[in-house]
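Q: What residues go here?
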């Protein structure tokens, strides 16, 4: 799939601008991504299959809007979101990126903490969305343990067993774990989560301003976002220190990182298999 004439025509009609140059952007696993140079400036566009990933870009736009409404941390502005016969597209503000610094890391931690103060009556979200290329259910629940089990872990465990990436014995281990989960943490008010907060899903602009990108939002336990930041690196000590100064995490949060990272690791099992199944088993063994 390339930037088709239909997509370009729709973009030009929406922008009322002339596209001067289209440059591929690397880094995306799911979508084709490009930098558009136009008579109105530069923009970033993602394109994928309209039929394979139904409502992916609508969900992303909803997630960006939810984060923007918190007035806590920046997200790229949505310029256009739409579809042609076969392709969906999402065009965003182009952000020139710079180097992370101690100051920008502190701002990212502080602003994420402020975003996490945005709460809801229940865990979940108003609509389902995606975690990577996988459907993510956001059915509402009254407590985090039930939400985390039924909307996060169980669907991913079943998928992994069906794909033979995990064994039936692993599913039985998870069943034992579910009984223990409510006693492993203290329930907090639901916090608005980014939901996929690894090091590739934030940007620092050339002015040093943090931006969150590619959200998979829901209202959940804020330790979930913090746990994901530790999974693949990209966040330094200044980030965690600033977060805790702004909105202190509950005692023992470091010991619960492997607990919440069961979900993103299961997602990786279903997307990539291999070593991630071993990591899931290692994390699970800590709690059963």
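A:
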């Amino acid at each position: 799939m390339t930037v088709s004439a239909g997509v370009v025509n729709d973009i030009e009609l929406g922008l009322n601008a002339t596209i001067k140059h289209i440059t591929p952007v690397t880094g995306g696993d799911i979508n084709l991504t490009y930098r558009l140079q136009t008579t109105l400036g530069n923009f970033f566009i993602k394109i994928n299959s309209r039929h394979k990933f139904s409502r992916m870009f609508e969900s992303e736009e909803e997630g960006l809007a939810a984060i923007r409404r918190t007035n806590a941390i920046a997200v790229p502005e949505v310029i256009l979101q739409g579809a042609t016969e076969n392709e969906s597209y999402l065009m965003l503000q182009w952000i020139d990126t710079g180097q992370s610094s101690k100051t920008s890391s502190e701002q990212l931690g502080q602003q994420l903490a402020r975003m996490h103060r945005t709460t809801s009556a229940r865990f979940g979200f108003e609509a389902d969305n995606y975690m990577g290329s996988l459907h993510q259910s956001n059915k509402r629940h009254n407590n985090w343990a039930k939400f985390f089990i039924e909307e996060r872990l169980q669907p991913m465990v079943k998928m992994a067993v069906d794909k033979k990436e995990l064994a039936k014995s692993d599913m039985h281990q998870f069943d034992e774990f579910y009984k223990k989960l409510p006693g492993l943490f203290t329930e907090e008010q639901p916090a608005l989560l980014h939901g996929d907060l690894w090091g590739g899903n934030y940007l620092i602009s050339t002015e040093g301003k943090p931006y969150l990108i590619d959200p998979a939002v829901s209202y959940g336990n804020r330790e979930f976002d913090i746990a994901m930041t530790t999974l693949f690196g990209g966040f330094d000590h200044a980030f965690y220190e600033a977060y805790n100064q702004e909105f202190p995490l509950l005692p023992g949060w470091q010991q619960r990182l492997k607990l919440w990272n069961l979900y993103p690791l299961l997602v990786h099992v279903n997307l990539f298999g291999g070593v991630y199944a071993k990591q899931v088993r290692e994390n699970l063994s800590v709690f059963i």
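A: Context that may help when evaluating the design: The radius of gyration is 20 Å. DSSP finds ten helices and eleven strands in the chain.
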